[in-house]
Amino acid sequence: MRYVDEYRDPDLARGLVAEIRSLVVPGETVRVMEVCGGHTHAIFRHGLEELLPPEVEFVHGPGCPVCVIPMGRVDDAIAIAETEGVTLATFGDMLRVPGGRGSLLEAQARGADVRMVYSPLDALELARREPERHVCFFAIGFETTAPATAVTLLRARDDAVPNFSVFCNHVLIEPPLRAILDTPGLRVDAFIGPGHVSSVIGSDAYGFIPEEYGRPVVVSAFEPVDLLQSVAMLLHQRAEGRCEVENQYTRVVRAEGNPRALAAIAQTMEPREDFEWRGLGVLPRSALRIRDELAGLDAETLFTLPGERIEDPKACRCGEVLTGQIKPWECGVFGTACTPERPLGTCMVSSEGACAAYFSYGRLRRPREEAPVGG
Amino acid sequence: MARRRRPLLRDERITLAHGAGGKATHDLVGALFLAELENDALAALADSAVVAPPAGRLALTTDSYVVRPLVFPGGDIGELAVNGTVNDLAVVGARPLWLSAGFVLEEGLPVSDLRRIVGSMAAAAGRADVIVVAGDTKVVERGKADGLYITTSGVGVLEHDLTLEPSRVRPGDRVLLSGTLADHGMAVMIARGDLRLEGDVESDTAPVHELAAALLRLGGGVRWMRDPTRGGLATALNELAAHSGLAVRMRETALPVRAPVAAACEILGIDPLYVANEGKLVAVVAPDVADDALVRLRAHELGAEAVEIGIVEAEPEAMVLLDTALGGSRIVDVLVGDPLPRIC
Q1: Is residue A373 part of a domain?
Q2: Quick one: A295 and A322 in the same domain?
Q3: Distance from first CA to last CA of chain B, Å, rounded?
Q4: Within a domain: residue A280?
Q5: Number of structural domains, chain A?
Q6: CA–CA dist B311, B175 (Å, integer)
Q7: Contact call for A96 and B266, based on CB within 8 A
Q8: How many angstroms separate the CA of residue A135 from the nearest CA in chain B?
Q9: A224: which chain B residues are within 8 Å (Cβ-Cβ)?
């Protein structure tokens, strides 16, 4: 497959692994957090941890947009879906995520009309095709998917589609990163910055990480060769005493991001006062709401929602997993009370979550990594 | 047997009357089912087909088919319903003999669609050398079924003493695959049109009975066979691992996936290991017959691209592993619920 195989080339990968080995200081662990769930998935899918020297340790970050949606918001979505005459459309990943009253899939089994779509524009199309129903799009995701929702909102407004709304749950990448960086006892030395989010917000957006927190960042693409190169770039910074934002994903990401996408977001959405994150708690100005000018398309205005806050289960230690303080299997419920089939915590919810990735792909490596955690 | 004059079917669409048991039912059975599936056992229109028992153990299986769309590139639900049941018989080592077919038709189904589908069942049965000896038709109200559902049951005979169970698999055994992965599942997903993808991808629906028979001639060297349908190769091998307590280690570089299928999987974030196949055979054979087995598979049109994809190991217990192209490895776990559409 062109444009993919090049970035999975075993020879290139071997060269980068050799470079990484030459850059690590024996016995000195470097903990690298990959922020994005897509990176987590790629690391496991290609077995990258096994290729790297033990001195490089991945900490899997909070960048799985499905995982961070709090249970109360899932319940709100279920309430919308269970409203007479309403169809709730969302991404497939979201269907299995449990709220306080089960998942959307379970709501569907009880009779709610829940449909899987691949894009918010598909949901708008559904509304046009079925004018007798109201179609609500359950929007999730970081700045990556927000532009598509923004464009859909603008089109629904321009075409005056009367039976369409958006339940907006878009979140921002900076607040959770700050929350992690502010965590006492943080065990992360360097960051692999998310690729797709950065295509929208630009690599400059991470300047605060080296400037305020003294940790280097490399924005990375998603293929294994990309990730290995990003690790090598981080180690080069370390070896050379540099601490800055670098961009490995130059084929897509620009320093200033995508101004048109950012403008579409700004035109349709604005920051909320605060938003609750699974595993991280309530973070100020960490999510987006639909602007008042578009209130007619805002499900939060159109529907009466329970809006309850449901605490994460006590036994769940997702917060500590997300901040690199424990490895997934060190959580008491990992693989027992909390499994991909019946997830308790955010990290087990989608295949991009740290715990689910370990559970599905990485259980074998536990003994090796359980050994010394030096540093 | 003297043939009665065949009734005429003038209706363009299936109505509830076609399931009521009266003249409309009679016309549908005579002018469509009997005409397409033509054979004496069926033509007798008795309440049961009566067949002479063959020598050997019998295998009996049943499967329901609910694929949407009914017709997809490379096949349709009728062909699928025959091949799927034939394959379930073939992989336990049976020679498929007879099928029964139950149809649930949705009111409003175009009769021409039904005729095409029953016609492809007849063609598939001919290719697999099985006879559809019994059938049943019901009609449900509009909106109660996706056009039609088919349930086929099959009987086959085991003309040897082998019982192909996971317990016969040993560490060191080789895992063979008869051809490319994920063609059927991706063809159907693309054909549904929801994904707005276009691609030159066709279902691989085909009977694997001749491939299975070719391997059976190896005798005890063939340990276990499966047709990796719903849940794909990963699911079939996980069942083997779970029931044998052994590990299956695959090589990513050995897994054959056609370029357009790989591209579609990549775009959708789907792992081809979990996508359904409908004309493939995965077999575990003893190491000393592995080369011979590959030669036999490749000698058949449907096995031309057969490859060895991995090996059975003693440890880790009951797990499927994949050595990645980059030199790492990962677990290939059982699938946990998936949001993918119905494809078989």
Answers
A1: no
A2: no
A3: 37
A4: no
A5: 2
A6: 6
A7: no
A8: 17
A9: 326
Distance CA A316, CA A336 (A): 12
Q: Which tokens sit at B110?
A: 């175009």
Q: Does residue B1 have a pLDDT over 50?
A: no
Average pLDDT score over residue span A36-58: 90
Report the CATH number that the domain containing residue A79 is assigned in CATH: 3.40.50.11740
For residues A229 and A322, membership in a common domain is answered with: yes
The answer, yes or no, to whether residue B192 has pLDDT greater than 90, is: no
- Is there a cis peptide before residue A224, judged by omega within 30 degrees of 0? no
Chain A residues with CB under 8 Å of B316 CB are 364
Tell me the mean pLDDT in the region A216-234: 96
Residues A20, A163, single domain; the answer is no
Q: Return the minimum-mean-pLDDT range out of A5-9, A123-127, A288-292, B100-104.
A: A5-9
Note the helical H segments in B5-76. Answer: 23-28, 35-37, 40-43
- Chain B CB within 8 Å of residue A60 CB: no
Query: A204 and A329: one domain?
Result: yes
- Chain A residue closest in CA terms to B340: A92
Q: What angle do CA A267, A270, A276 make, to 5 degrees?
A: 150
Search chain B and give the residue with CA nearest A342: B336
Looking at the structure, do residues A35 and A121 belong to the same domain, yes or no?
no
Which pLDDT value is given to residue B337?
57
Contact A47 B194 (CB under 8 A): no
Considering the domain architecture, whether residues A189 and A150 belong to the same structural domain is answered as no
Query: Percent of chain A at pLDDT above 70?
Result: 96
Name the amino acid, one letter, at A260.
R
| CATH code that applies to domain B16-158 | 3.30.1330.10
Altogether, the residues listed in chain B come to a count of 344
Same domain, A234 and A350: yes
CB contact under 8 A, B327 and A1: no
Task: Note the ipTM here.
Answer: 0.80
Q: What's the whole-model pTM score?
A: 0.87
Pinpoint the alpha helices (H) of B91-142: 111-128
Q: Is A282 domain-assigned?
A: no
Residue numbers of the domain that contains A292: 71-171+287-302
Burial (CB < 10 A; 0-12, 13-18, 19+), residue B317, is exposed
Q: What is the pLDDT of residue A341?
A: 81
Please name the fold of domain B166-331: Phosphoribosyl-aminoimidazole Synthetase; Chain A, domain 2 (3.90.650)
Residues from chain A that touch B271, judged by Cβ atoms under 8 A, are 45
Percent of chain A with pLDDT over 90: 66
Looking at chain A, which residue has its C-alpha nearest residue B327?
A: A51
Contact B330, A47 (CB under 8 A): yes
Ramachandran sector of residue B267 (left: φ over 0; alpha: ψ -120 to 50; beta: rest): alpha
Query: Residues A187, A297: one domain?
Result: no
pLDDT of residue A364: 64
Read off the pLDDT band of A285 (50, 70, 90).
Answer: very high
Please check whether residue A49 is in contact with residue A58, taking contact to mean a CB–CB distance below 8 angstroms: yes
| Structure-block tokens of residue B15 | 């109505």
Predicted local distance difference test score (pLDDT) of residue A124: 97
| Inter-chain residue contact A362 with B331, CB threshold 8 Å | yes
For the residues B110-135, what does the mean pLDDT come to?
A: 97
> Any idea what the Cα angle at residue B27 is, between residues B21 and B30, rounded to 5°?
105
Cβ within 8 Å, pair A47-B336: no
CA A271 – CA A273 distance, rounded (Å): 7
User: In this structure, is residue A87 part of a structural domain?
Assistant: yes
How many angstroms separate the CA atoms of B235 and B336, rounded?
A: 10
Three-state DSSP class for A264?
helix
> What residues does each domain of chain B span?
16-158, 166-331
Q: Which of B263, B328, B331 sits opposite A1 (nearest CB)?
A: B263
How much of chain B exceeds pLDDT 90, in percent? 82
Is residue B181 within 8 Å of B255, Cβ to Cβ?
yes
Residue A349 sits in a domain whose CATH number is 3.40.50.11750
